[in-house]
Amino acid sequence: MLIKPAIDATSRGALTDVGALRMELFGCWQEAKRADKIAALLLTLRTDLDGLYYDDITALFRQAECSSRLLRDLFDIFPIYHSRVPLIRYYLHVILPTMSKTMRDMCIYIDNEELPKRRQWTLMEERLGDQADMTLVQRFAMYCEALVQIIRLLSRSPTYHSTMLEQLRQKHIRLRKLQGIPDPQVQIIPHHAPPVPSAAEIEGKRRHWAEKIFDDQPHAATGLKHRRASKCFGYPMPEPTGIPVGSTVLFKLPFDKNRLSITLYLHADGADITRLLCRWTDRYCVNPMYSCFGVHELCIRRNGSSLQFRRWSSGRAHSALWAALFFKTWERMVLFHQAFVALKARCPLTINVNPDDYVLSGEKVLFRAQIIDDGFEHALSVIQDKKSFGLRLHAAVWNGELRRCPVWTAFVTYQSASPSWLHRRSNHRIWLKDISPYVFCNTYKKRRQIRKHGEFEIYFVDRQAADAFEEVFMEEEKDDQIIQILPRADGQGHVEVVMSGGL
After folding, report:
1. How far apart are CA 208 and CA 157, in angstroms?
2. Helices (H), 78-197
3. Structure-model confidence comparison of residues 145 and 494, the more confident one
4. 302 by DSSP, 3-state: which?
5. Long-range contacts for 415-420 (Cβ within 8 Å, ≥24 apart)?
6. How far apart are alpha carbons 161 and 86 in whole angstroms?
7. Backbone Cα Rg of the chain
8. What is the DSSP string of 45-92?
């Protein structure tokens, strides 16, 4: 691998050698493609061997896929943290050559049609499976652990572990020597890594709510049908431009095994200015392409198992499709939709939010009422997906400038069938067990609603609303009703209104 001299950084931290950044990007992308090839070859080999060595091949296949995903994750956040690339250049020059050498050696065996299938696997295991006292699975696990730490270092994650990265670096240096790879010539740029942070320090460092949305997997996974390949229709750029130093990644979602990704990041030029960066490849273009728009420039709609984003086209004088993202599960689609709408509503560049943006088509509202939630007035809804019949609780701002803006959502799982799931604590209070709200607001503190044994408390402004909420989860409830608690015109209390249909 070609090694260039260490690059310098200006006082602002931006790279002065743009070519070096492109080289790092190209290296990560090429090795991700190589890891994809290895995973595909292993999958074919596992099928041809018809169960023989199934567990061993599966373990290696999963590690190869993981390494590909991490390399593309690193590739996708490079442009946003480009000023910090000098911190990780040395580590990339340690890891990528040995990773590349391992995969090229593997191809000698598992991409060799002259060898019988069984012989491909056994010969590869025999000759590569004990270098540096590590099996191939352990070797790929080491690559993945190192890439995780590099991503955390690049993105300023509080969970970055400098001691672990140093230990992994030494293991890679040892493996390089056994593979006949010389030491890297790129100098280490000291990054003065802090000691391993405590749990309290991690919690104390305030993370944006959007950074935590996809941290935990939902307890239920409701599959969606009729999925196709996700696609971006924006004007392609060969590389992302205009991302200022100091921007922060909120979250990144891969689609179609990371062949397309969407990265949401906070723009450094102003608070709450969020942009979407789409990266994709297609059969007509080998190198990845990019397109980028602000949340205030896009509208969002659901179409089956996809979320579609439309932008205004001044040339056509009407809206044009920018991207179509197909989701595997209803829960993940809901979280992305709610996060996008919340970010758009709070973006200072948003002139107004189209009311249709707040609605996820294919869902119907079974119940809506006013609650007091962490000291705020919110509208609580019980929403059901018409096709999958998935249920969720949805809290939104009750009134004011941000009216209808999502505050949190929680998915109702099979545990709601238990008689102890819902407990009527008082006329106005209901406690729910096993509810995990996903929060779309920095000011809301869900822990204030959590009681001693983990119950989540909902306080209804009107007693009739609490009664109606209980009825929603009774087996005899009609599927096509919306129960809504609205204030009376004279301001004296609330009245229950039952309407047919849904959103």
Report:
1. 12
2. 85-110, 117-128, 136-154, 162-179
3. 145
4. strand
5. 416/391, 416/473
6. 18
7. 26
8. HHHHTTTTTHHHHHHHHHHHHHHHHHHHHHHHHTTTTGGGHHHHHHHH
| DSSP summary character for residue 410 | E
- What is residue 267's predicted lDDT score, i.e. its pLDDT? 87
The two three-digit tokens of residue 483, written as one number:
């129960």
pLDDT in tens, 79-116: 899 888 888 988 999 999 999 999 999 999 999 999 99
| DSSP helix/strand/coil, 423 | strand
Sheet holding 306-313, edge to edge: 231-232, 318-326, 306-313, 298-303
Report the pLDDT value the prediction gives residue 241, as an integer from 0 to 100: 78
Range among 14-23, 213-222, 485-494 with highest mean pLDDT value: 213-222
Cα 449 to chain centroid, rounded: 26
Strand partners, 260: 255, 280
Residue type present at position 157? S
- pTM given for the model: 0.83
Instruction: Report the pLDDT value the prediction gives residue 199, as an integer from 0 to 100.
Output: 55
In single-letter form, the type of residue at position 34 comes to R
Please list, residue by residue across 299-330, b when 16 or more beta carbons sit within 10 angstroms of its beta carbon and e when fewer do: bbbbebbbbbbbbeeeeeeeeeebbbbbbebb
| Mean pLDDT, range 62-78, rounded to an integer | 94
Average pLDDT, the chain: 85
Task: State the Cα–Cα distance between residues 16 and 37, nearest whole angstrom.
Answer: 34
Are 80 and 13 in contact, with CB atoms under 8 Å apart? no
- Calpha distance 288→236 (Å, rounded): 9
| pLDDT score at 484 | 52
pLDDT above 80 (res 321): yes
* Alpha helices (runs of H) in 275-356, residue ranges in sequence order: 330-346
